[in-house]
Amino acid sequence: MHRVFSFFCTVLAAVIPTVSLICSGCASHTYTVRPRQRVQIVSQPPGAQIEVNGQYVGDAPTTVEVETSTDGHFWRDTIIKAYPKETGYTQIRVFNGKSRWAISDLVPSRIFFDTRVDPSAAFQSNR
Fold it and tell me: Contact at 8 Å (CB) between 109 and 39?
């Protein structure tokens, strides 16, 4: 009986801290509120559908808020697309975010899309 009791106490002494660690979970992380900056998005012709990181945000001209670093750079990688209202070419602007890259892009106050211009025209003129 004494051996069983001794074994039980040893196992219990090892199990209690293990269970406590498993059930305690990770320390909670505080959410940092990042500064936000307003960006005006315009298109020529007006009315292009604007999408930011896959989410429709409105027709140009429109204003969106983006999360920034304290020095005014994009915090997250950001992809902004302009889909022409009727005919034209989809335009895309891509910005590196400071949370992932050593070199990040400064947040402009205004982004202009001209959906009448073929984006591949610049590559064709260099040939």
Answer: yes
Q: Is 16 exposed, middle or buried, given 0-12, 13-18 or 19+ CB atoms closer than 10 A?
A: exposed
**Strands 55-59 and 62-67: what pairing?**
unpaired
8 A C-beta contact, residue 94 and residue 87:
no
One-letter amino acid of 27: A
Condensed to tens digits (0 to 9), the pLDDT of residues 12-49 reads 566 666 666 566 665 566 677 889 999 999 999 999 99
Torsion angle (degrees, nearest 10) of CA 100, 104, 108, 111: -70
Instruction: Please tell me the distance from the alpha carbon of residue 14 to that of residue 26, in angstroms, as a whole number.
Output: 21
- Joined tokens for residue 8: 């039980």
Domain ranges of the chain: 36-117
Q: Which amino acid is at 82?
A: A
pTM (2 d.p.): 0.70
